[in-house]
Amino acid sequence: MNPADVAQSALPVTADLSIFSLFLQAHWVVKLVMIGLLACSIWVWAIAIDKLLLFARTKRAMDRFEQAFWSGQSLEELYRALSARPTHSMAALFVAAMREWKRSFEGQSRSFAGLQTRIDKVMDVTITREIDRLERRLLVLATVGSAGPFVGLFGTVWGIMNSFQSIAASKNTSLAVVAPGIAEALFATAIGLVAAIPATIFYNKFVAEVNKQAHRLEGFADEFSAILSRQIDERGT
């Protein structure tokens, strides 16, 4: 901190301790920390809202798909309806398996050897790809949740150091002089917690949701693989 900053901080203290005033009176380093944490907080909420809508939309789409799949509708009709643009994870899994199935049966060789293995492999790859899509940007929540309080603490430490230098420059240790500087410094930690707490809560919630949907996809993949396996056996005999 340069002497000019300290001297400016040693100016007569105002009694205004509003949030806006605390921000304006803070050192520029603390201001940068606060602005960064506020930006992270907005980013966290934007990701959270997007993920909440995504998981709700995906769950509804999976429910509708499973209802259609187990209704007795022809797999060919279902494939034709979804193959152009599968809009959710389970449809993508179904289309990938059916595409491999049709490729083997409609090809010149009509080879059944290894078809079951190829279908299982295709579904495993599709599940991995869909899980990666659902987990996208969760790393941001984890990072803000773990690092946010420490970034806020850095702003607080810097603010307290600046406050002590201001107190030393003013040669006045009364509470009226000390309190505003400490309040400014602690404000940075408060903003860090405001960013980190929702990030941690949403991260844990979304990880649980991803695991739930992954188990659902794996369950459907096992059931669909068993159906195709029976059909391979029937056509191979």
Automatic annotation (TrEMBL):
Residues crossing the lipid bilayer are: 28-54, 138-161, 181-203
Q: Name one GO biological process term.
A: protein import
Q: Which organism is it from?
A: Pseudorhodoplanes sinuspersici
Could you tell me what this protein is called?
A: Tol-Pal system protein TolQ
Which superkingdom, per the lineage? Bacteria
Q: Does the keyword Cytoplasm apply?
A: no
The organism's lineage is: Bacteria, Pseudomonadati, Pseudomonadota, Alphaproteobacteria, Hyphomicrobiales
How does the entry describe its membrane topology? Multi-pass membrane protein
Subcellular localization(s) per the UniProt record:
Cell inner membrane; Cell membrane
**Could you tell me which NCBIfam families the record lists for this protein?**
tolQ
Q: Which GO terms describe its cellular component?
A: plasma membrane
- Which keywords belong to this entry? Cell cycle, Cell division, Cell inner membrane, Cell membrane, Membrane, Transmembrane, Transmembrane helix
Determine if Transmembrane is one of this entry's keywords.
yes
Q: Which InterPro entries match?
A: ExbB/TolQ_transport, MotA_ExbB_proton_chnl, Tol-Pal_TolQ
Per the entry, what this protein does is: Part of the Tol-Pal system, which plays a role in outer membrane invagination during cell division and is important for maintaining outer membrane integrity.
* Subunit and partners: The Tol-Pal system is composed of five core proteins: the inner membrane proteins TolA, TolQ and TolR, the periplasmic protein TolB and the outer membrane protein Pal. They form a network linking the inner and outer membranes and the peptidoglycan layer.
UniProt lists the family membership as follows: Belongs to the ExbB/TolQ family.
Q: Known PANTHER family for this protein? A: PROTEIN TOLQ (PTHR30625), TOL-PAL SYSTEM PROTEIN TOLQ (PTHR30625:SF3)
